[in-house]
């Protein structure tokens, strides 16, 4: 199968392998939540190399993991080396020293997938790797790649107090594909339908590849989200389980945020718990992002939102009715959650529009010092899109996921809200599914964009 995207990741790994073949050992760490494509990338990378790929399993003892690792070495290496492999190893230090010995002359790639599972209740596995790398790896032609889906654990390993701090030559976090990057998975979908597919699937390769371009959005959602055992219905708990557990109230906080609670006090109120630790953990693991009003004149209070579009969809639309869907009532649930789906779509479209505005800055459509974000003041006024060059509003924008064309009435509303800014805007912009009518498009200070501009522009 063809590798889609991940060119930067593959190039970085390839450069590291070139150093290995020249006699410089390389330690690489690749991490990111489940379904993000780590395994696909690394098996593609390992395809033409002398390599061993080992995936650690949950809740296995050290003895069991070490025996399985020895079996993997025996099965995957060539005959002249295979005969040297023992039935098992006494420790992970012994196992790592052994593979280092196999790389004295010929380059060897060893991938330890889901490395955080290799703790075994003893010393942290990262400390073991660090000790072996420091004391026993010198000029061997070894590339050791550690991967993990437990994002918070992996970043702790790499952090100032972690065993891998400043040890790895390659540190690469893999995140879901952006809307533009994900387009390669569904190039034939009409732009508006692709936005709908992305809003449900997020930037996950498996989800996007299961979306059928020959079916309508409603038909795809029925199969993938509203059918018992559907991929989009069951995948979110698996993704979350690597990092989070029920004891911290993480699901309650994410549900509150996906349902529209954006301020700290409202999130805590809906979740009915203290959220300081929970929110911090969610931010560190990449499930939540903090959003601040752009410029010096907006609100000083930040907003919080779910940073993963698929998970936001699952929490907003599917989570509370998952049991009903599993019980065969998916069609009814899809009807009763249609409003939540549309609200989620609007939020995804708005975020994609801001990304599009940033690309316009990169393409020199605006001054190079222009920054793009949101603006709000208390709870009285909010602007979807603000582009600032210094203190000057270069552009004020509105995002609408609606089929009807926008009119001059929408321009008047945006102008009234932008009057709260300290300086008048130079341009007004609208991102809309239905575009603009002739009266609005005829204004010289107005720019209009459609899903085609976001997706293919």
UniProtKB/TrEMBL annotation:
MF annotations from Gene Ontology: ATP binding
Occurrences of domain DUF234 (ranges): 314-403
Chain ranges of the ATPase domain: 6-209
Pfam families xrefs: ATPase_2, DUF234
Full protein name: ArsR family transcriptional regulator
Provenance organism: Virgisporangium ochraceum
């Amino acid at each position: 199968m063809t590798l889609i995207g991940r060119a930067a990741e593959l190039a970085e790994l390839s450069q590291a392998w070139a150093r290995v073949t020249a006699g410089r050992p390389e330690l690489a760490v690749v991490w990111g939540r489940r379904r993000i494509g780590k395994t696909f990338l690394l098996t593609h990378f390992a395809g033409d190399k002398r390599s061993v790929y080992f995936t650690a399993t949950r809740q296995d003892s050290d003895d069991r993991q070490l025996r399985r690792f020895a079996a993997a070495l025996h099965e995957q290496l060539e005959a002249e080396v295979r005969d040297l492999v023992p039935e098992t190893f006494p420790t992970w230090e012994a196992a790592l020293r052994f593979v280092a010995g196999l790389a004295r002359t010929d380059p060897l790639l060893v991938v330890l997938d889901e490395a955080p599972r290799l703790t075994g209740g003893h010393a942290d596995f990262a400390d073991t790797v660090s000790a072996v790398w420091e004391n026993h790896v010198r000029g061997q032609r070894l590339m050791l790649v550690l991967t993990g889906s437990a994002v918070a654990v992996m970043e702790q390993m790499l952090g100032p107090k972690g065993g891998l701090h400043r040890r790895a030559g390659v540190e690469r976090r893999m995140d879901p594909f952006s809307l533009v990057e994900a387009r390669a998975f569904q190039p034939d979908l009409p732009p508006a339908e692709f936005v709908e597919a992305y809003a449900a699937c997020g930037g996950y390769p498996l989800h996007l590849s299961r979306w059928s371009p020959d079916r309508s959005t409603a038909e795809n959602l029925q199969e993938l989200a509203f059918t018992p055992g559907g991929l989009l219905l069951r995948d979110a708990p698996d993704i979350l389980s690597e990092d989070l557990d029920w004891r911290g109230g993480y699901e309650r906080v994410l549900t509150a945020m996906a349902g529209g609670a954006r301020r700290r006090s409202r999130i805590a109120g809906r979740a009915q718990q203290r959220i300081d630790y929970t929110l911090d953990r969610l931010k560190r693991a990449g499930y939540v992002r903090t959003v601040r009003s752009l410029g010096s004149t907006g609100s000083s209070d930040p907003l919080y939102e779910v940073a993963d579009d698929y998970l936001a969809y699952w929490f907003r639309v599917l989570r509370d009715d998952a049991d009903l869907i599993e019980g065969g009532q998916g069609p009814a649930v899809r009807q009763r959650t249609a409003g939540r789906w549309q609200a989620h779509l609007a939020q995804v479209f708005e975020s994609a529009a801001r990304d599009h505005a940033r690309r316009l800055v990169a393409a020199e459509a605006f001054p190079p010092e222009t920054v793009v974000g949101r603006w709000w003041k208390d709870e009285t006024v909010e602007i979807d899109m603000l582009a600032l060059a210094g203190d000057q509003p270069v552009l004020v924008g509105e995002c609408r996921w609606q089929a009807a064309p926008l009119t001059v009435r929408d321009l008047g509303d945006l102008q009234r809200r932008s009057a709260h800014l300290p300086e008048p805007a130079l341009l007004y912009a609208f991102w809309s599914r239905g575009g603009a009518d002739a009266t609005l498009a005829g204004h010289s200070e107005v720019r209009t964009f459609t899903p085609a501009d976001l997706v293919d522009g």
